[in-house]
Amino acid sequence: MPGIAIAAIGAGASIYAAHKQAGGNKDAAKISAASDDKALAQAKDIYNTQRQDEAPYRQAGSGALNNLNYGLGLPQLAPQTGAPNTPGGPQMPMVRIKAPNGNIYSVPGTQAAEARANGGQLV
Predict the structure, then answer these.
(1) Is residue 123 in a domain?
(2) What residues contact residue 61 under an 8 Å CB cut-off, 6+ apart?
(3) Alpha carbon of residue 87 to chain centroid
(4) Is residue 52 part of a domain?
(5) CA distance 1 to 66
(6) Residues 6+ apart with CB under 8 A from 112
(7) What total number of domains does the chain contain?
């Protein structure tokens, strides 16, 4: 009989310990989830701050790339604000003109008539 009592006490203690451990695991999971949420919010704040800090450099790079593309007769980036066919300005359709010296240029469509009047040919 004493062996049964000891076994019952041991079983009861095991059940109690398992219950306490399960509750502890739930608490730990809640704490971990809350910590992950805080870390994610902080990472988003850092990302947004970096985007704001780098905005002037992105704009300068976009303008420089538009100037380069314009000079090469390549498509330009999406327009922002500014004069037509300038970096950041609205983009007009471009046409390719062969100059009297044989060089080929891209010019805004609105300048095609002037280029042709000066001896250029549409290519």
Answers:
(1) no
(2) none
(3) 21
(4) yes
(5) 93
(6) 95, 97, 122
(7) 1
**What range does the domain containing 16 cover?**
2-91
Q: Does residue 20 belong to any structural domain of this protein?
A: yes
Q: Which amino acid is at 49?
A: T
Q: State both tokens at 17.
A: 């310990």
**Burial group, residue 107, by CB count within 10 angstroms (0-12, 13-18, 19+):** middle
Average pLDDT over the chain reads 77
**Cβ atoms of residues 77 and 67 within 8 Å:** no
Assess contact for 58 and 79: CB atoms under 8 A.
no
Rounded Cα gap, residues 106 and 122, in angstroms: 10
Contact (CB, 8 A) for 76 and 69 = yes
In a domain, 106, yes or no: no
pLDDT confidence tier of residue 32, bands split at 50, 70 and 90: confident
